[in-house]
């Protein structure tokens, strides 16, 4: 069946469910349905370890009876199962407490235009090809250097999906998407020292994945470069957070400006709209309609239209991120962030990776973070780390078993430079980040 017809069939199911909800007494209702088909193959030591096919789907519905909400879901799409699911949701709503902030987003905020964002690039789910990709990737890593002595495996994944959302304001829209990934993790040994590292590639289009040879060799090179890691003395030094990690670093900013944390008064950026948070040269733009990007969408999880936004304007906190519920709690309006962010483009200073090392001079290049020691209420930051010690702009040796600590307020304001080479494998597109001063705890 063609993908357009599958989406049309799901839209019909969503329409039917919404009508059932109204007939059962719901004053408002919303329904969403997704279907995923895919293959996942993993190998270990050049042998197939696992082959898994996925063909899942399910429908969820939320109904509102006045200001009371009820939700239910089902994987059974028969008429009787759908009717029972709606009935359960309405029954739940009748027994829940009233919440003045509950309900659908305002009707005028619903998406009405649905451009093709180039998110769907299907290919045949060929088991033999998938197995060959995984094994070839792992073999490239194992053959790279004799110090690569073991493997945690390689994997190839291909997923095709579709998403449909509808509500009683009239929106009923859907789109297909695809996602491919190739990854590898290996273990290296040198005398008594053992280290592991990885590499991966992900894209909407299979032809744009890095080759198995490139992914495997990168995993092996990363692993070998960590052999001989040392501890270092405790000091206050600048750090560079490698671009592979920098997206998660800005993820703390996402949490701090999210409406849920704001109305709970659990963010260190509460009541800071318009305040200088980053250096004046740094701006962050959100681009939800980027072609083929991994976080593109013309509407959020509540059907609200997405649009280009300035998130940080010359270092100033330009906007908070609201869902409908959090916006009502804070007496404002949603801005299309139910379900997350949509392609943040982090500004940069044009530095190459080599330039960043020179700009830092002496300090720590961080390539791995461990633990979850981040407090969004206070901004306190403390995480285990590994990476490379740098002197006079030149990497000297690998480092492990250290902790980097500071406060996110100081870390954000202390960003000295951001590299021009961006990691675009997620919802945040950013280069490596040079931060002026952090406590690096070692010996």
CATH superfamily of the largest domain: PmbA/TldD superfamily
Can you write the helix and strand succession as a string? HEEEHHEEEHEHHEEEHEHEEEHEEE
Which parts are unreliable, with pLDDT below 50 for 5 consecutive residues or more? Answer: none
Using the alpha-carbon principal axes, give the shape: globular
Distance between the termini: 62 Å
CATH fold-level assignment of the largest domain: PmbA/TldD fold
Overall residue-averaged pLDDT value: 97
Domain Metalloprotease TldD/E central: 120-227
Organism: Alteromonas halophila
Protein name: Peptidase PMbA
Domain Metalloprotease TldD/E N-terminal: 29-93
Q: Short summary of the structure?
A:
Residues 235-442 form the Metalloprotease TldD/E C-terminal domain. This protein has 443 residues and is an alpha+beta fold.
């Amino acid at each position: 069946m063609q993908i357009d017809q599958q989406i049309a069939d799901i839209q019909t199911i969503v329409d039917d469910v919404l009508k059932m909800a109204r007939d059962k007494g719901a004053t408002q209702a919303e329904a969403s349905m997704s279907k995923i088909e895919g293959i996942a193959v993993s190998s270990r030591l050049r042998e197939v370890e696992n082959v898994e096919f996925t063909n899942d789907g399910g429908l969820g519905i939320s109904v509102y009876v006045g200001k009371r909400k009820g939700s239910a879901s089902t994987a059974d799409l028969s008429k009787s199962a759908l009717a029972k699911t709606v009935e359960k949701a309405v029954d739940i709503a009748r027994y829940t407490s009233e919440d003045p902030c509950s309900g659908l987003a305002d009707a005028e905020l619903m998406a009405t235009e649905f451009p093709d964002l180039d998110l769907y690039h299907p290919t045949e789910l060929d088991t033999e090809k998938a197995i060959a990709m995984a094994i070839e990737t792992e073999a490239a890593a194992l053959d790279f250097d004799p110090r690569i002595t073991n493997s945690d495996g390689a994997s190839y994944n291909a997923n095709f999906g579709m998403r449909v959302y509808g509500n009683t304001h009239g929106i009923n829209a859907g789109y297909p998407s695809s996602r491919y990934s190739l990854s590898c993790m290996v273990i290296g040994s040198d005398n008594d020292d053992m280290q592991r590292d990885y590499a991966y590639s992900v894209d909407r289009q299979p032809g744009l994945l890095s080759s198995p040879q490139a992914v495997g060799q990168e995993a092996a090179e990363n692993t070998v470069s960590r052999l001989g890691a040392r501890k270092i003395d405790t000091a206050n030094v600048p750090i560079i957070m490698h671009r592979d990690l920098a997206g998660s670093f800005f993820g703390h900013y996402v949490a701090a400006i999210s409406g849920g944390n704001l109305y709970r008064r659990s963010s260190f950026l509460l009541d800071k709209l318009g305040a200088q948070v980053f250096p004046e040269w740094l701006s962050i733009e959100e681009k939800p309609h980027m072609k083929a990007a991994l976080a593109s969408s013309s509407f959020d999880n509540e059907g609200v239209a997405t649009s280009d936004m300035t998130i940080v304007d010359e270092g100033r906190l330009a906007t908070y991120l609201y869902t409908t519920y959090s916006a009502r709690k804070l007496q404002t309006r949603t801005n299309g962030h139910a379900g997350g962010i949509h392609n943040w483009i982090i500004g940069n200073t044009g530095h190459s990776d080599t330039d960043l090392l020179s700009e830092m001079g002496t300090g720590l290049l961080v390539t791995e973070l461990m633990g979850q020691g981040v407090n969004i209420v206070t901004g306190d930051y403390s995480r285990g780390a590994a990476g490379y010690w740098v002197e006079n702009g030149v990497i000297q040796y690998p480092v492990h078993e250290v902790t980097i600590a500071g406060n996110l307020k100081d870390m954000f304001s202390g960003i000295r430079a951001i590299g021009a080479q961006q990691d675009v494998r997620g919802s945040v597109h950013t280069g490596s980040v040079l931060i002026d001063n952090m406590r690096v705890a070692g010996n």
